[in-house]
Amino acid sequence: MIGQPTMMASPLEDRRRALEESFFSKKNKQLLDALREEISQADRKQALSAAVQIDDEGTLDLLIQADITVESLLAFKLLPLVEVAWADATIAQPEREAILAAAESKGIRPSDVAYQLLQNWLAEPLTEEVKAAWRAYASGLAESLGAERCAAIRAEVLGKAREVAQSAGGILGIGNKISSVEEQVIAELTQAFGDSE
């Protein structure tokens, strides 16, 4: 309309776009397009509710208002699992199995595009650019949703990352199952949420 100011992209929108662009690299572009096609046929609020496993209408409305996509939430939830698994420079088979089991527990099946993307991400370590994009997105999400509403998302994301770290640790099942390197990664991931803890 004439005389109506144009809307500026929010900082969270910029962070969301950066996260998606860095996480879903060009080699995964076709898979991302297929994933978007699958999601475009579903009700957005219902898809977001399933992705974050939150039924609170207020939180879901905030996610929609902030233009949070299921793709960005998928990347947001899976990246910490992958980063923790790569913390020791290799991914042990129990870690790989824990990550894939976590994905399946969220309804991601081996035949799904998201599962195929996850397998690609497990094939090589994450770049610093991807890690930085995740941390910026976590910070923006915490700012956008507020501490109380972000707490459930943070607990789920970091809880699964801790499970992955525990899955391959210890010697013969005895001792600390999380290495100091994995603890450091989890601390950095937690810190990305700012004061939301």
Structural commentary:
The protein has 197 residues and is mostly helical. The chain has one domain. Helices cover 68% and strands 0% of the residues. α1 (11-23) runs antiparallel to α8 (128-145), α6 (93-105) packs antiparallel against α7 (113-123) and α6 (93-105) runs antiparallel to α9 (147-167). The N and C termini lie far apart (43 Å). 37% of the residues are buried. Residues 1-6 have low confidence and may be disordered.
Write the layout of secondary structure elements.
Blueprint lengths: L10 H13 L5 H12 L3 H9 L4 H9 L4 H16 L7 H13 L7 H11 L4 H18 L1 H21 L12 H12 L6
Helix pairs in contact: 1-5, 1-8, 2-7, 3-4, 5-6, 5-8, 5-9, 5-10, 6-7, 6-9, 8-9, 9-10
Percent of residues in beta strands: under 5%
Q: Biggest sheet: strands, sense, closure?
A: none
Envelope shape: globular
Low-confidence residue ranges: 1-6
Number of strand elements: 0
Please give the radius of gyration in angstroms.
Answer: 17 Å
Number of helices: 10
Query: How do the helices and strands follow one another from N- to C-terminus?
Result: HHHHHHHHHH
In short:
By secondary structure, this protein is mainly alpha-helical. The chain contains 10 helices and no strands.
Pick out its properties.
0% strand; 197 residues; globular; single chain; 68% helix
